[in-house]
Write a structure and sequence with these properties.
Chain lengths: 223, 253
């Protein structure tokens, strides 16, 4: 079975940057792994998410050398700021969550079922009829996560996903990740919230200046 | 008021293509009209659209705000500096053909602005997206059009947030026009930089959600269209064609 992502000797440099954001990085992810990425600002965790999901350099620009194989059928990514991830075109939360499946041309009933399932998963079914522009930051972030889950991604990249969430909502978000992983989704989390990440991760990577310096059990790497 | 205002008027309930066709007809017909009387009929048509859409007062107010500086410029350029014959209005000597020309140009502008403000206020961007999706229009074009319709309200909302934050840090907005102009700096820079940074992230987010999937999107709730509305749109197209035929016929005559 093809791994969701396989990187071998990958070096990635942003356009105009003097230093590579990722340097000679090799990584194989297994299906159903929850991998926490730890590192100081600029260590390359967020960039690794962009490279692993295929967004860099395709949409970000820059240069990538080395070998990258993305076996995941569909990738999802969630950033820290929810308001930048909304379409801005949907008048209800349901439509916002349904946007992804609708974009892939799934039949209407299947799209609505996927949206309803994702809303249930995030515990925000009661927000379905609300206007996304009238929600709080925490509610919005859960809408964004639901919108990503509605796509049923094989690889889910989370870039500081709880930044806008209150502690309870952050706990709830992390608590649902193991179930997703058991269903086969590979999850990559870049976050400064190492305690929460350690509580769900099955593997952890420590990054420094674009290189993996430690790779192992979360208890070993994150503490 | 520039942007969508929720409501239940006939224009709000109409298929978005019908509302846009009405505004488009005013725009195209305005350029076919060359005498002040017919242009001002179009201004009345624009106002009538505003009344039907329940947004007359706000659209007239915004249209006046937007077009008054242009009216002033037209008055100076054509009315004061125009050619003979001239007429005296009190102590001021005005160019008669210049005033007529200014009335045509200003009327055109007012009619167009009025009708498009009404279309913006009564066309829900979401319904427009659904209508275009149902017709199989590629998402890139749909997004471009709908984003254009929503950009001003979004920028206004963001500007208000930035101003609030800057005022908390001691920015003063009152005072002389020069002081107000200086206050634009702390507003404009974060507004533009913030918008650019957000666009970058939004592109990535939309891409992973299939915006560029290249398949026909599924419309979830396409707005209902009717034979009557389709007939009206064809009628409007015929009206525009007739207006241009009339224009060319008059030019030849």
């Amino acid at each position: 079975m093809t791994p969701p992502v396989s990187l071998a000797g990958v070096t990635f440099t942003y356009p105009g940057a003097e230093r590579a954001a990722l340097s000679d990085l090799s990584l194989d992810l297994e299906a159903g792994e929850i991998v926490a990425l730890a590192g100081a600002a600029g260590a390359g965790a967020s960039t690794l998410l962009l490279v692993a999901t295929g967004l860099a350099p395709r949409l970000v620009g820059g240069t990538l050398t080395g070998s990258r194989t993305i076996g995941a059928r569909r990738c999802g990514i969630v950033f820290a700021r929810p308001w930048t991830q909304l379409t801005g075109l949907c008048s209800t939360v349901r439509d916002e969550v349904a946007f992804g499946p609708a974009s892939y041309g799934a039949p209407r009933e299947a799209v609505l079922e996927a949206a309803a399932r994702a809303l249930e998963q995030l515990g925000i079914a009661h927000l379905a009829a609300r206007d996304p522009s009238h929600l709080s930051g925490g509610e919005l972030q859960r809408v964004v996560v639901a919108a990503t889950l509605a796509l049923e991604p094989d690889l889910l990249a989370l870039d500081d996903p709880a930044a806008e969430l209150d502690p309870d909502a952050a706990d709830a978000l992390y608590a649902m990740l193991p179930a997703l992983a058991r269903a086969g989704t590979t999850i990559l989390i870049a976050t400064p919230d190492l305690d929460r990440a350690a509580s769900v991760a099955t593997r952890a990577l420590a990054l420094e200046r674009g290189r993996i310096v430690r790779d192992g059990a979360p208890a070993m790497v994150l503490t | 008021m520039i942007g969508y205002v929720a409501g239940r008027s006939p224009l709000h309930r109409a298929h978005p293509y019908t509302t846009l066709a009405l505004a488009g007809t005013v725009l195209l017909t305005a350029f076919a009209m060359t005498d002040p009387a017919t242009v001002w009929v179009l201004v009345l048509a624009g106002a009538a659209l505003g009344a039907i859409g329940g947004v007359l007062r706000s659209s007239v107010r915004t249209a006046l705000l937007l077009s008054l500086p242009i009216w002033a410029l037209l008055f100076v350029l054509y009315g004061l500096l125009g050619g003979d014959p001239r007429v005296m209005v009190g102590p001021v000597s005005l160019s008669a053909p210049g005033i007529a020309r200014a009335l045509v140009l200003g009327g055109r502008l007012t009619a167009i602005v009025l009708s498009f403000l009404t279309a913006l206020a009564t066309t829900s961007p979401h319904r427009l997206v659904e209508a275009m999706t149902a017709r199989g229009v590629p998402f890139g074009r749909t997004f471009l059009l709908a984003s254009t319709l929503t950009i001003l309200p979004r920028m206004r909302e963001r500007a208000a947030q930035i101003l609030e934050a800057q005022q908390c840090r001691g920015l003063r907005l009152g005072g002389s026009p020069l002081a107000r102009l200086r206050a634009l700096g702390p507003l404009a820079l974060p507004l533009i930089l913030g918008a650019l940074a957000e666009v970058d992230e939004q592109v990535l987010a939309l891409d992973v959600r299939g915006a560029a999937a290249g398949v026909r999107r599924t419309a979830l709730d396409p707005p209902p269209d009717s034979a009557g509305q389709r007939t009206l749109r064809w009628g409007l197209l015929a009206l525009v064609a007739a207006a241009y035929l009339w224009k060319f016929w008059r030019m030849r005559g």
